[in-house]
Design brief:
The chain is an alpha+beta fold. It is about 35% helix and about 25% strand. A hairpin with a 5-residue loop joins β3 and β4. α1 runs antiparallel to α4.
């Protein structure tokens, strides 16, 4: 026969905490499904054929990670450089250039990366495309600079985040949309910049978080039972 005399204050506090832990676990499972759907959507967008600029503009946020086809001219005199690290951890810079689209409008294009020794455009003259250019790139909304992002070195046109508003202000240009087009991996003359730098990496640890919350709920339940047993309030007779 089970004999149980609960400590009501302890039981109430434990029940509230147990409900919170289980609720957090369920929320993380919901977040997991959302993240998986987002990843699937991004890969679906990347697999679709390129769309036009007008189509991308009409889609709004739904244009994210879609390929877009543009025709126009690079304003090579207004290159901006965004510091980053390469695959081996070395110092590289994304070359961001205003692109004047045929038919009107200007968009920033991330043409790819160059090492520090190739920052000077004179060291990569073949890649300074002149005249009408047709390009395909990925439509992206860059993250805003964080609180700890270093201030840009405007004298050398180096930024530490793709701060489009500040880059546009430094260049005296107006971008048609607060987005960036990341050039695809089509090789540039001379090999620089190296395009195709779009990174599709989403942190997805929601399952681990859910297991942690559910695990803590189980531990709490075990502590609750053990405490009542130790006080002689839960026993089998």
């Amino acid at each position: 026969m089970l004999r149980f005399r609960p400590l009501w204050a302890f039981t109430f506090a434990s029940a509230v905490l147990f409900a919170i832990l289980v609720g957090l676990g369920v929320w993380q499972l919901e977040r997991l499904q959302w993240k998986l759907a987002l990843i699937a959507e991004v890969h679906h967008h990347l697999a679709e054929p390129p769309i036009s600029l007008s189509k991308a503009m009409s889609l709004g946020p739904a244009a994210e990670y879609r390929h877009v086809a543009l025709t126009g001219r690079f304003d090579n005199a207004k290159e901006a450089y965004v510091f980053s690290t390469g695959a081996g951890g070395g110092e590289v810079y994304h070359v961001v250039v205003p692109f004047h689209v045929e038919g009107g409008g200007t968009l920033p294009v991330d043409r790819g990366i160059v090492p520090k020794e190739k920052l000077d455009p004179k060291t990569r003259r073949p890649g300074q495309l002149a005249g009408i250019v047709y390009l395909i790139g990925v439509w992206r909304t860059p993250e805003a600079p964080g609180f700890f992002t270093p201030a840009p070195d405007r004298a050398h046109r180096i930024w530490y985040a793709r701060d489009l508003k500040d880059i546009a202000a430094a260049d005296g240009v107006r971008f048609a949309a607060p987005v960036l087009v990341e050039a695809d991996a089509a090789p540039n003359p001379g090999g620089w910049p190296k395009g195709g730098q779009t990174v599709v990496a989403f942190r997805n640890e929601h399952l681990q978080y859910a297991i942690t919350w559910f695990g803590l709920a189980v531990v709490l339940l075990a502590v609750y039972v053990a405490y009542h047993v130790s006080r002689g309030r839960l026993s089998l007779r």
